[in-house]
Amino acid sequence: MGGAVGGGSPSVAAPAVARSAPPPAGAGSAALRRQLARAERRRRLRAFGLVAPLLLFLLVTFALPIAKMLWRSVQDPEVGATLPETAASLRRWDGKDLPGDDAYAALAADLARAREAGNLAMAAQRLNYDIPGFRSLLFTTARRLGTADAGTGPPTRESFARIDPRWNDRATWAAIRRASGPLTDFYLLGAVDRHRDADGAIVRVRNDQAIYVDVLVRTFTIGAAVTVLCLALGFPVAHLLATLPPRIGNPLMILVLLPFWTSLLVRTAAWVVLLQEQGLVNNALAALGVIDHPLKLIYNRVGVFIAMTHVLLPFMILPLYSVMRGIPPVYMRAAASLGARPAEAFVRVYLPQTLPGVGAGCLLVFILAIGYYITPALIGGPADQMISYFVAFYTTDTANWGLAAALGVVLLSATLVLYALYHRLVGIEKLRLG
Description:
By secondary structure, this protein is mainly alpha-helical. The chain contains 22 helices and two strands.
């Protein structure tokens, strides 16, 4: 019995020893990692919750309008929705000769239906963008079909030709097929002075209709000139503010920021008063004996340069100032102690360190300048209007939203290409490494 009890004691004691043993070393670290992961997830969710309203605001007010603009530049639903049978018939047309009588019959049915429903105007306006006079052609044909002018029986090629000879022109039917949608490159091609001919080839528009490439070149020329002027004026101002003691530099910085407290429209209108022939500038120059007769400083390119440079100058000074404030003055003293002249030390030591600010300021001013509308519209003349003027014109005056969106897409694409080129050649990272 005792032996049995003694022999059984190890089996009784073993479970007690196992229950009191510490947990494996990996179990505690795994639990800690899970707790840290949960804490990190909660932290990210809280951070996302804080920025979610801002993200939603940017999505609704910035991303969605741009996406809508991009989509509207290739969207072409008007003709396909108004003339569906004609669009379906012309998809089977080879485009080499006039379409068959089925296309004429389909067009007659679509015109009758659209005239009864009262929705022919949108399709007529869209086709009029492609061929001037198409609106009157479409309404005249819809009104006279079924009358004595068109003849009796089902509509045929001859009956359409009696209404207007243009229905025997292959270009007329090619325009309807190009506009049948739902997507098109018509607006994007028009924004760069191109269009498709009756054979579908991309060709340049006539010289008297080619304006948008010149406007785009003018826009970038004005933007580049204003950027250079802002850099020439802003660099010494930023250098002065960065090197002055804070008790003097800070009040002067308020003067740089003061234009931000005034409306852009008010600042632009003030230049109208200053630059006109009997304005303060001409009167002051005449009083000093510099000029004998008033200079023409408004409603031309000179006025645009002056007003836009004044408006955009703070956007050049602030990036330059922020970079210059971080340049230790000991570098210039070290260069002088090594025998460098002041001009040489400035060019070889100080100026390279300001290049990030120069690049950021030039990029900011240039992007803002090419999108300006109010200042060139009020100060400039007809030959000084930039591409933003035409975007506003086609949006509000003619309701040609497709072409307005296409012009915006061209401007946005050109800006992105220039930014990518700038980043590749003189990006901030390369400037710092240099």
